[in-house]
Batch of 2 targets.
Target 1
Amino acid sequence: MQTQDAISAGYGGDKPSYLTNGSTLKSWLLTKDHKRIAIMYLISVSVFFFMGGIYAAFIRLELLTPASDLLETATYNKVFTQHGILMIFFFLIPAIPAILGNFLLPLMIGAKDLALPRINLLSLYIYWVGGILTLYALMQGGVDTGWTFYTPYSTTFSNSFVMAVGLGIFINGFSSILTGLNFIVTIHTMRAPGMTWFRLPLFVWAHYATSLVMILGTPVVAITVLLLAIERVTRVGIFDPAIGGDPILFQHLFWFYSHPAVYIMILPGMGVISEVISNFSRKKIFGYEFIAFSSIAIAVFGFLVWGHHMFVSGQSIYAGLVFSFLTMVVAVPSAIKVFNWTATMYKGSISYDTPMLYAIGFLGLFLVGGLTGLFLGSVGLTVHLTDTYFVVAHFHYVMVGGQVIAYLAGIHYWWPKMTGRMYSEFWGKISAMLVFVGFNLTFFPQFILGYQGMPRRYAAYPEEFQVLNIFSTAGASVLGVGLTLPVIYFTHSIIAGKRAGDNPWMLPGLEWRTASPPPTENFEEMPVVTWEAYEFGEENGLDIESARKASGPSVPVQA
Amino acid sequence: MSHDHTEGAHIGIPGYLGVFAILVVGTILTYYVATFDLDFIFAGANTLVALLIAFTKMAFVMLYFMHVRWSGRLIWLSAVASFFWLAIMFAYTMQDYLTRGQGVFSY
């Protein structure tokens, strides 16, 4: 039986960590280290998340009463548009790939860095340029078209800063493309000896599938925004029927990217959940190959369903039927994942640490989000539900209940590896429970509101909807507290947190076999992988389970 | 990863200038064809001809300027996959446009 010390040693060595290898501003801004770039993404993405959150707070405060009293209707249009733009393009899409993917992908496959480190830094700078330009436009007066920029409103009628925001999103798209490209090249060419495709952690498979969507889909939305700009400036007829264009063409092109973009947001989250559930159940994941290939299937089928956003747009009924059928099909690989995660937990040795609390929350919330997606994918029922709060609730159950919860699971799970410090497990659990309760209180009433016919994107509503809106706003304040707590205890962790061991959760993955925080080169010597993913017995070279049991109760191991 | 990308196989400056000349000719041809009304062949024939010229130009750019001609099978797979995705976008968009107002599901 191996001891806890032997498990902590691994490939880490005594080299200085990536955090202490240079402390000047230049050493950060010109770094090619994927881990430092990930930390800079973490800070940037968090800023956008909290700005988007402020807009969300204004939306919920406005909807506390039936009248449009806190915000003018024109201002309300800008507030919900800017909430959507900041959250989708600058938080949901980059959050997990750019932060956790950047930090962990090389560590998980036994590489020193991503294959194209300079391109990685470039993608961060592009993200900053796109973000700053968008923020500038928002501060100058903002945009009121909705995050979807539907034509002909965005090309003909809106007097807001459509061009500047569009340019910001256009630029930001290249950051996404370059990150996806980098991940694909890295996974193909940088795997350690013995790290075969079917030994890759499922987090890596999920990022591979996400990267495919990023590089195949993002150029289309970039070109669509460009066409929108061309029509707005030069009045060439592309989308405006008055000058020979077709507004539904915009919706086709926009959703060809923006529906797969939902999978860019959720697939990395699913990768996180696969890691957390298997590792905190201390059991080999059930149906590894099925989960891996279901990620690829989601990426492929995700490109075939965009027309379900357009059932009432004027799209042909035949096309609607085809898209409705394919929407049912894309639910299958998602369901495979949920079944396999549940089967993994069955008879597992589950520990309810903070990351696992989030992962279990994800299972329930994503299930609700996914199943209500089938309601909206049904071509008949959706006529009643389109553009109601039912859609808003469904979307948030998938995006917040899915992606954000998975992101929080991941950031808690790998925080000791990223910083070398532990956070307060007590406050972590409190936060996880507040987020779960607050989230459900915010968004579940919106299903009912939507079913009863309350439309989205209006600042005022009939009085009979007020009670449920009060529930929703109250829930949002609980959710806000739950999401603010991690900022406080993570900051405390960096300043005064207990030092984490190299392998605080006692897990077999490669990222746990190097130092916490890792050295710049990740591993002192090239790892040679001789074990399958998620093996907790002696076959992985570390008899983790025996050592864990010998070390006493299930608490994170500190140095 | 297979990678038989050799410098010697490239076409050199004269070759690249030749490809550039083909692109310029393609652009001029696109303009010239657009000055004729080809609807006597079938409705929308002008668009089809313009697209054919554009695809030919794109193929030259990919094969020579982007060196796909001398790249390994994985790069070829990526290039073909991109076209496959483009075909999906066109096909599923056209299934809307071509089925409006006709057939069993017309409205």
Target 2
Amino acid sequence: MKIQFKNVCPHIFQELSLKSDVWNNDFTIQDGLRYQLCGPSGRGKTSFLSYLLGYRKDYKGEVSINNRTVSEINIDEWVELRSEKISCVFQDLQLIEKLSIADNIALIPKFAKGYGLSEAEKMLADLGMPNKWNAQVKTLSFGQKQRVAIARALCKPFDLLICDEPFSHLDAMHKSKCIDLIERRLNEEKAGVLLTSLDGENQLDLKSIHL
Amino acid sequence: MQKLFFTNQNRFQLFSACLGLMIGLILLLSSIQLYHKAKLYNEDSELLDGHTLIIQKKVNRASHLGLGSPNFSKSEIEVLQSQEFISACSPIMSNQFEVIVEIDDPVIPAFNSNIFLQSVESEFVNISPSNFGWNDSSIFVPVVMPHNFLIMLNTFLSASQLPQLSESLVSNVEMNLIVGPRSKRTILPARIVGFTNTFSSILVPNSFMKMANLKYASTQAQLHSQIIVRSVDEKLGLLESYLKEMGYESGEDQLFVSRLKSALSLTLMFMLSLAVLTLSLSIIIMIQYLQLMLSSLSFEIRLMLRLGHSIKTVKSKFFRYFIFVFILTALISFGSFYFLSLTIDHKLISSGILIKESTSIWTLVSLLAVFIIFAITVDIYTKRKIKAQFFS
């Protein structure tokens, strides 16, 4: 999956004459490669992901996926992209608090080949959450919720995994487990990754892009 | 998704909407059923047909003294025709020759009597023109009998210790019309093709009357002492006032029936309007509940779309839920209506009012129509709201 940003700048940054690797520049995410978006808070990391996923259009310039601008992509194609090509760990996790972990994971429209609810349960056990499968999400700590969100994203099929500050509330041990799991799934899917973080991550062999 | 969208919802508003929908549906079905029953009940009494009156000039002292004509002039007929509350109007033609009806059937004792014939435009006779037409080559004269004639005949048969006749049986009775003056009488076979409550004389086709008046009458001047008028549905009152003002009159029983028809039509109209109003309101409340639900579930809906579910998949969950609610409510409403209808039918039958126990197909058609309107509204509204979440 090839993603291009051509001279893109969020409207809120237009008056700042900001120039970085991404903003007001030409930037390409190549198929199967691994990237890390680095930058302090407020430099538009989440905006970047929102533009890429078609959630927001408050920018100038052009974003294209596989050589088609996001405005050319129709709803059915977006559905296919979201269900099979791009998987996300959202910064705000996007979990349903009133449902159990099992129910939250069951919400994904399509599991990756060889994956299902039992594999997801095992995945969570590997991430240090055995016996929590039927617990309601609202009873979990933020760190545990982050692991559920990571497991949900990894159960889907994808060509590109997008992770928006996925380890912000994880201790070193759980972060390492998560990275191992992500590494395994990236290899299985032969997919690329785009990760945002406040500090640099190097365990996934990521190419840094500065905002 | 079912669990995600439909658990822990406050269903008070939905319950209110269902209750409104139920009342609206019962009212709608009942008004349609009532209309159907009114149509079925004594079909020949034309209970829900237009208000048809036979009018004539009031007979007073002046007319006895020859100061005013009891007949309608051509200009008076034209003035009547031009009134906004009259939808149709036609002079009634009467026989100007002698007529005797003779029953010539082995099952009925011989019976003959001088009678009075009338004819009107075919649109005022509730019989197909193909059955009520006459020309020179016709083998019999089709006649429409007043119901009272059958009652009179049955009274006669009863007095003669003979079995009484139904409408269908009497239609097969062989009879003749003997027309013309004693010196040149002609016997013409006749057959009863229908019955009427509007006219108290025997009706024959216009073409026959014209021919017979030309051939057998001593005078050729055609006088019109009676006129048949049909009022515009909701303007019977205006017609009544006009008749009073012009010194015309109509049979009190005909006026009474017309007033009754007006009252019944108004009641049905009121019930139908109330039903449509209640249904519209309940559907609006239901859509508001859907709107509330979609707003309170905006996070969940957005998440589903972000995870890769299609708009169609998410929409179908809400659509199915509301269709299920509608079908359940409609079934309860139809059951209640059916039970109510049966109870009323039994009450009427036990009070001696013979009525067929049947449910009009139009009740089901109206139910289907409301369902289609509801389904289309829910479908369009849900799709629009969910689509708005797709790129947010």
